[in-house]
## 1
Amino acid sequence: MSAQVLDGLALSRAVRADLKVRVDALREKGIIPRLDVLVAAQDPASLSYVKMKHSWAAKAGMVGESFPVDENTTQSQLIDKIHELNADPLVHGILLQHPLPKHLDEQDALLALGSKKDVDGISPESLGRLLSDIPGFRCATPYGIMQMIDHYEIPVKGKRAVVVGRSVILGKPAAIMLLQRHATVTIAHSRTENLSELCREADILVAAVGKAEMIKGSWLKPGAVVFDAGYNRVEGRQGDVGDVEFESAKEVAGWITPVPGGVGPMTVASLLRNAVDSAEKTAN
Ligand code: NDP
């Protein structure tokens, strides 16, 4: 058996084409959706992710600026910048590209960001809204996974879901979103015992670990739906690999996201979708 591939890149193209139509309509009203980014100036990986986000935003007709932060940036300068962008009516979304330089307190910055322009959906206020089932911007990576679930009509209600990883930006919100869709959810982490057995119980498996190819095909329930959020660099190999060993997993799973081309592109599409939603709110 070979699993069907959940094509996140193709779906992200469709989402972005839809966004372009909405952005064009906003531009006719004189509103140009704008996503600004605070990014660590000395982190090549972050800079390249941000470049890609700006490029996809521009293709959808949006604008945005990057504000580099470095070892000379103080916490109060960072917070002042966030307050300034929050107060600027021309800015609809603000992204704090993780990780910021180590001397800066990211949680404090996210508290200052609040939820109004937090289009990445990771501030404590946005996450509280998610947990409380109050409308707000949903965390981009798990929101992207939910859009794949909707697009491919994957049944979730009553199903057993296992989320491996409990980070604030990925594992936990993914688990909450699946719970809101009436899955029975287990969250696994580095101290979970018998992880492979637990994974074998999952109708839906979300891998959000950050360990290259840790989850093997033999860990999966036949026919399971597998979302691999992992992006891992491996020495001597080109490109990134996921947390799931794709070659063995695809022989057991029913559906699976590839890396690259699965969860990653849908994360960016979701971020842009949130930013356009934010801009539309200012039009009403
Ligand atoms: P974190 O490092 O913040 O969290 C990793 C989680 O995995 C932790 O909860 C940790 O457990 C758990 N974990 C670590 N080792 C094991 C293990 N051996 N068995 C079970 N659980 C384990 O990572 P992120 O959530 O930020 O990212 C996870 C992956 O997703 C990374 O590869 C990252 O690059 C990728 N990512 C992809 C995005 C996308 O757009 N597709 C966006 C964001 C991240 P514990 O809590 O006990 O330490």
## 2
Amino acid sequence: MNSTFKYKTIKDLNDGIVPVDLLCEYMRNPVGLNTVNPRFSWHVLSDERGQYQTAYRIVVASSKEKLEADIGDIWDTGKVESSKCTNIVFEGCPLISRQLCFWKVRIWDRYLNESAFSVCSRFEMGLLQQEDWRAVWIGSPVFGAEAPLFRKTFTIGKKVARARVYISGLGYYELHINGRKVGDRVLDPAWTDYGKRVLYAAYAVEEYLKQGSNVIGIMLGAGWYGKAYRNNVHAVTQLLLQMELEFEDGTAAYILTGPESGWKVHSNGPVTFSSIYDGESYDARLEIDGWDLAEPESYLEEDGKSEWLDPLWMEPPGGRMESQMMEPIKVIKVIKPISLSNPKPGVQVYDLSQNIAGWVKLQVSGPRSTKIILKYAELLYEDGTVNQENLRTAKAMDTYTLKGVGLEVYEPHFTFHGFRYVQVEGFPGEASMDAVTGRFVRSSVEQAGRFHCSHALLNKIQENVVWTEANNLHGVPSDCPQRDERLAWLNDMTVRAEEAVYNFNLAALYTKWQKDIADTQGAVTGAIADTAPFHRYGRRPADPVCSSYLIVPWLMYLHYGDQRILEEHYEGFKKWMSYLGAHSDGYIINYSCIGDWASPRTESESGSLGGGAVSAKTPGKLMSTGFYYYNAVLLTKIARLLGKPEDARFYEELSGFIKKAFNDIFFNSQTCQYATGSQASNVFPLYLGLVPKGNEKAVMDNIVASVMEENNGHLTTGNICTKYIMEVLAEAGRMDIAYLLATQKTYPSWGYMLSRGATTIWERWEYLSVGDECEMASHNHPMYGSISAWFYKMLGGINVDPEGPGFERIVIKPYIPKELEFATASVKTMRGLVSSKWEKSKDLLEIQVVIPFNSRAKVYIPFIFSFTETEIKEGNNTLWKHGKSSYKTEELFIDGHTSDYLIIQTGSGSYCFTVAPICGN
Ligand code: RAM
């Protein structure tokens, strides 16, 4: 290789360059893998410029010892010349259920030097075949049993080599072995349409077992399977458990739920009521001491009669059993209240100072039978008591009845709430600040992104978005965590998902949710539903704005380099497109329900769906048809990618027809307005690239006029076009207007929400808190959080490049508003950390960029001072002066310019660019 770089010794390289963060199906050391073709990923930490991978070798072995000896008896790729480091598909010996594998990887770098091997990682297969399940579902024989306790005693007389529990409990289970809760998952398994797919968890449980008598104890709760399931049909909670023991002498044993298997069930446990929406009631007087312990067992038969009955054998819920391959829901953080008030005698209100999802932990001592009520709310009335009006029918209330023994500690098991305030009623004596602590509960996905800038208001919006997004991740991306809804709406996700993948690592959660959507697809019509799992609200067919069905997997491809999700859902996409096509007249979709939803009240139709959330100004059919076009464009790309040229041609042609029909119907070439000329009507076609060539500026001018002249510097858009207006303004060179909207403080704006004390993002632009207006008044709703993607992409400048998905190629292109002094953004990608930071003063702009190992970037350096009289440097090297470019090395070279930007190509590493006006000579 003709390199300008000094050759480094293997030792130098080995010290720094080694694959880290080994992922298998996006998880670290997963137990219970679903697929026989798992995918491997890693990245390398290195700050060296222009470094990349030229080859890799993956070794997969059946034991740690073999792996250490470099014996890949399951798979050894040998040296593969490839720069691929994400989602490499396993092609070794066929994998079977339960198989435990060890793997490691080494790479070769740009100098063809070999790295050391990574540390050893593991993956373990789950139960791949339905026939692997020997256990049978069981349930309580007592009608209406709220949270039955199951118990099974067994004896271990030999040394255990390996012990696994595969478990599913509907709606939720809590697994104990020998008196200890197993693991730290809560609200498990995640919600699915149980008639289609049921998730199970796989646990390694050796450490919980002992020689002699052992007990498995399980409490079930209704969760989404209870009263809330399928429009109030009361499903009976049920349990499936398979424990597999392998002993050191090579023998094995199973502990299975099923008929006549020695399980006992008690139907009067301490949880006397549980509901996702309404909360939980816990009567500590009903606790059964030692229910999950082996000894003594005598109490089971007190007085010759026992409440521990034989369980019933239950019909399976119908869905395929599938391992839950995503981050489980956990208590993520403990939040101490900042204040405690006493608005009425016997009533205390705690303020966590942050709107969260989860519950509180209560610590109390007092007389037996004292009943404490905890009421959760996002809002307060003026008198300081909690206002639950915007929760609609959700009672959001936990109750705890004391047993009267010492300090009692309680937190709910099978419910969650969305709240900032908790009102405590009936507390014995004086409640202290320590009596209540907030528990922030969500899917334990990693936060991936950070954004910060010199404007406090924007930072606060970003903080609120991160909270709101996080508050709405509970195995599905829900719309809100507090009222009688909490559903994963596809229309919201159409615009929310991009913000979400910048802020969090959602690869596994979205893989699961995409299947939830597929599960809603009608076998006959191909129609998907508005919500997935399809439940309670929304309808099938979905509103055409539900393009998240295609957009989410496309984002999975762009952000995580995931092509498999596109392959797996491709046929489904086509069916949905055919459905839409069948409901179009001359390529105009002929139905709409939601459209550009929840715009400011002045723009929406009073009395319409959702408490008047349908736009009065932006035609629903314009939105529907726009998304029909968007889908066609995406499908063209996807078909091309998947090697289906005929399909690609078909969808490309289709997009052309839709474009023409769209403009014929909605575009007025005289006024350059679309439809009514509402902001959304003009923004959406601009965003989609539908505007006939040459008219873009005029359409943009109309948008600007609407913002500035008709609305005094405010937007009028709903949930969908609020994302798009910010992007088209920036891209069309009107960052000034976009920035004005982002920093606007008066209604309607994000700043207005903040001025009303918001710590999360609202569902509507209005502050709604009482009476009828509360029908749609969530204060914790991620859809308007889409602005956070704009922070990353436009202010921070971090963008994916479709030419190199998964951040193999990165575009750094900051749009720099006059008023902002600095902005910094970073994203932890599959290939490592990408960051971009700029800071400007009167006569200097500095841009620092970090590109991970094995990635390349196109960096756009803005000519903020002038095009010609500017000097652009990287470090000490001049790249551009007096309108002329110079400089070229292998890891950094100029790749052209526009009138606004100098375009630079870089390899990996850190770069510091400066832009300064040339003064004087
Ligand atoms: C409401 C919620 C949800 C949404 C649907 C259409 O129930 O606001 O987020 O977009 O309506």
